[in-house]
Amino acid sequence: MKQVHVDVAVIGGGPAGLAASLAARKEGAERVLIIERNTELGGILQQCIHHGFGLHRFKDELTGPEYAQRFIDFVKETDIEVLLETMVLEVTPERKIYAVNSESGMLEIHAKSIVLAMGCRERTRGALRIPGSRPAGVFSAGTAQRYVNIDGYVPGKKAVILGSGDIGLIMARRFTLEGAKVEAVVEVLPYAAGLTRNVVQCLEDYDIPLHLQSTVIEIHGNKRIEAVTIAKVDEKWNPIPGTEQKIECDTLLLSVGLVPENELSSQAGVAIDPITNGPIVDDSMMTNLPGIFACGNVLHVHDLVDNVSKESERAGMYAGRYALGQSGEKSRKIKVVAGENIRYVVPHEVSADEPVEFFMRVQRPQDSVALDVGGLRQIRKTSVRPSEMLDVKLTPEQLQSFEGDTLVIQIVEK
């Protein structure tokens, strides 16, 4: 078995992995390696040909491939090593990585620090347990996106989209632009799950109906899907009898959420947050396993790639310091807790040594409120929505002035 020794190994060559590797190299880590199972770098961005990327990072409106290419070019300007078409099979707590590819066979990679940047995957029909047969024409929204944007195939002419996540909303517009008819977008929640800008630009601008507090209760068809039955749901998401509506279609797209890809993390013994389904990390983005860091959508699902890059640079910077033996003891540890109307907060633990940026999502929409950070800061918000991530920064001085050992972040009424 071929053995490789590196300072920092980054698993995943998407936007998180690219940003983390660049930050680690900038910090002084001499040998940085990106391991990517696909044939090219860029991750999911390569199939996101719509615009809206890079507004915060580059002050420019880019498509997904353009945003990815900027980071790929940055990597090419350095001596960062890249292994494409390489599948990681196992990560050990001792920071050994077992991977395989067609050129070298089995690889045993010894790393001084590891950055987990594997991204996330879509929930499937199996996770939803929708009754009905198993006809052709049922796709996850991301799969349909790849078919249309990369392979050049439109998988249907008359579609229903279950879920109003951002990919589903974007695919509603994409199908319409390709000449297909989107009969409806069906959402189980009383509000859209995607960004407000996507609801406006992808549904309202194209007169695509959005059915809230509704779900698909049956799929009709044998060889090919012929129709779906939708129904209104109550507070417990149970279908309400008498509200059924049958919609003819040849395609059903599922945009029902993303799940961080953490099989490798769990196998290594990384502690997982049951709310985010991602690793539990401190303010250096390090997991409970020393020298193993996490960032991007494998940590928690983001809505803006600009935030992925920012968070991943932090993980890469600290991974580089760890590899160089520069990670000192922390002066104190403050546990971070999600309070009123906060679903989760990342990171889960902070020190008072470095500035920190918290990312969080609310549980339900609220208007005219304030985000309270342990009494240290209060930020007024006209409205908060689960689809739009909140972030707030604290300085070391603010953290040092905090006297407790548990920092509660919550939404308060104003």
Structure description:
There is one protein chain. The longest helix is centred in the last third of the chain and has 19 residues, at 305-323. The strands form 7 sheets. Strands 1, 2, 5, 6, 7, 8 and 19 form a 7-stranded mixed beta sheet that branches. Strands 10-17-11-12-13 form a 5-stranded parallel beta sheet. With 414 residues, the chain is α/β, with parallel strands linked by helices. The radius of gyration is 22 Å and the shape is globular. Helix 1 (15-27) packs parallel to helix 2 and helix 1 packs parallel to helix 8. Strand 1, helix 1 and strand 2 form a beta-alpha-beta unit. The protein has helices at 15-27, 64-76, 125-128, 141-151, 166-177, 196-203, 263-268, 305-323, 396-400, and strands spanning 2-11, 32-35, 51-53, 62-63, 81-83, 87-91, 96-101, 105-116, 120-122, 138-140, 158-162, 181-186, 210-211, 214-221, 225-232, 245-248, 251-254, 258-260, 292-294, 334-338, 342-346, 349-350, 356-362, 366-373, 377-384, 390-394, 406-413. The protein contains 9 helices and 27 strands. It has 3 domains: 1-122 and 257-328, FAD/NAD(P)-binding domain; 124-256, 3-Layer(bba) Sandwich (FAD/NAD(P)-binding domain), CATH 3.50.50.60; 331-414, no CATH class.
